[in-house]
Write a structure and sequence with these properties.
The complex is a heterotrimer.
Chain A: H1 8-21, E1 53-55, E2 61-63, H2 103-111, H3 149-157, H4 179-189, H5 225-238, H6 247-250, H7 255-258, E3 268-270, E4 275-277, H8 279-290, H9 300-311, H10 325-338, H11 349-353, E5 364-365, E6 368-369, E7 383-385, E8 390-392, H12 394-405, H13 415-426, E9 437-439
Parallel strand pairs in A: 7-9
Antiparallel strand pairs in A: 1-2, 3-4, 5-6, 7-8
Chain B: E1 7-10, E2 20-27, E3 36-37, E4 40-41, E5 49-56, E6 59-66, E7 75-81, E8 86-94, E9 99-106
Antiparallel strand pairs in B: 1-2, 2-7, 3-4, 5-6, 5-8, 8-9
Chain C: H1 7-21, H2 34-41, H3 53-61, E1 66-68, E2 73-76, E3 80-81, E4 87-93, E5 103-110, E6 117-122, E7 131-136, E8 142-150, E9 155-164
Parallel strand pairs in C: 1-9, 3-9
Antiparallel strand pairs in C: 2-4, 4-7, 5-6, 5-8, 8-9
The chains are: A mainly alpha, B mainly beta, C alpha+beta.
Chain lengths: ~450, ~110, ~170
Amino acid sequence: MTRRRPRTGAWLAVALTVSLAAACVRNETKSPSAGLPPAPWVSRAIPEAKGEIQTLSDGKKQAVRYKGWATEDFSQYRTYAYDDADTLLPIGKAAMPAIPGDPKTGRSLFLNRTLGPCTGCHLIQGADVWPAGNVGRDLSAFGDRNAPDEYVFNLIYDARQFFPETTMPPWGSAGVLKPEDIVHLVAFLQTQKSPAPPEKDAERDPNTRPKPRGFGDNLDATNNPAVLRAERAEALWAKKGMTGKGCADCHAGGPLKAMRGVAARYPQYVALYRRVMSIEDFLTAHAPENTGVPLLAGSPDNVDLTMLIKMASNGMPVSIDLSSAENAAALGRGKATFYKKVGRRNHACADCHTVANGRGGEKFLGGRLLGNAEAGFTRHFPTWRTSQADVWDMRKRMQWCMTPLGTNMLAADAVEYAELELYLTFFDRGKPISVPGIRH
Amino acid sequence: MAEIGRVRIRIPSSIKQGDIVKVRVLVIHPMEIVQRKDGKPVDKNYHFINRVVVTYLDHDIAQFETSQSISENPFFAFAFKAVEPGVLKVTFLDTHGGKYEGTAEIKFS
Amino acid sequence: MAPPLSETRLTRRALLQALGAAGLCSLAAPDPGILTLALAQGNPGRLEPEESVDATMKRLFGTQPIKDGSSVIKLDLPLIAENGAVVPVSVEMTAPQTPQSHVKAIYIISDKNRRPLTAKFTLSPPLGYPYVATNLRLGESTDVRAVAQMSDGSLLMAKREVKVTVGGCGG
């Protein structure tokens, strides 16, 4: 019913390997496994956020995720878990089927949102193409190259055959596209010849498309509903749990006064729990132990209180401490996670969220402008999401990314996510906290 | 989830008599959208704000008739002429009999 | 000796005097009892029929000519909306408001929504300045139009296209 439990020893072995791979860690420590809890962390998340896999009565597996999210199980693909010894998807090669390729079928496959869509990264001709991205090459004149069909077939099947560092998913090797599909795609791409039709629409081409204007002042309660929601959390602060105490009983002066400066130091290694924690993680342990109130990871109460606690530090610079052995080691592991390729799509966070080496940061993925993680954004989380009409914390945002990557999500309060969050917070050092954010 | 009907009004911090004042207001409300079943819209009394009344000095000066095509947690902005000190009130009425109010005290500085 | 005027009557009288002095007092102000009336009638939501934007325009304005108001109506909308759930719109009229000629109502119509009429803002001279803003829900890329109904009954219109992006990494 649940994921296989990892053995403690496996953590150490993988942590060593992972940390050695993170060559650029500032404070190289003698113990790269410093800061890892002695035993795997038992998740205290709501059921939807635990990353569990169910086995149904017919033997099929299904992922337990948030309502409305895909339930597909991706167990055969690599996850972010430190003990995940799955190797990378092997580079595949296939023979090109000797069937006639139909460009019309190929075009509809190219636009098919359940497959890629290819237009997520590649622009092609056609006024109906909306919205294409520019993470990958503009293919509007691909046919001009007269590349051999066999080469194009293998490029789509598994681009790593020719470009080992590519961010293009291995569509064939991962089984997303069948060889017959790829034949039609090749036929279509060969029809993309110049001159392209004149551009009537500056927005159609992602290279000339204006960047999104954002959603205005995140701290204005008449603009950001999350601000009103955070005010509701003040009642949670006073609420007494089973121990007969509430937050207010130990932390006097109201949340904004009592918590001032606290969030600026998170995420950090918490000695009491022997792991790196964000405010959300910390609440899952601290609250039940002191007040008896559960505050499960991913619950609205946890998210709302986290917002309130972080708001108490609004305007203060992010000041995470990287000098301790534990935090430094965790930062190294977080960085390795950021660069780790996972899932059916064989993607690392870095593939979309950095700008160097032709990666996706600040380019359009379909209609979405991909954020550059190195510009920092954790100081705005938790954030209101206008597309969801809800407040999301950093972990839910990470878990959301997992499904299109084709990898099973970990529990919201997983140590791997906390250390990744520590790495991401690194890029916000010195910048003022401004919670809640507001974004798509 | 903030409770349905919570209202926040924003007016400028400093208003002089006779100023045209821009007002921003937000109310927490689901603004339930039309559901579809087998491709056809489900007929029911959807829960959304369909009327907003602006009252200044006990005089109703504006009315907005709104629909399910207004975003959840509706936001509105408008302008009015601050002729006298007094109360500016915005009342939201929804289709389930809900009535939510926000008020701002208009003072001159 | 006349009894002293109540506070309410005093302020309303002062308001009307002030409006008169400002040249804004008009018989076209909304009935002061709107709110009372609305509460009395109840406020049920009927499921309005789906219709094309042409049908909406015909239903609202009949065969009345609609003039191009793009020079006097400032309609602000993003060129591209990241999602259709929250699309900010504002409508401002730059023509001076006089007792003879002022804005009575502003309609916001989203052409491709199944029920194109999105909102009707009924204004009155005490507002002093025709400006309204809100957030729209758009089902897909569409034109959004603002139709201003003037005190003399004439209609002016401005419209803009909004492209809505759908989907993305996981949506």
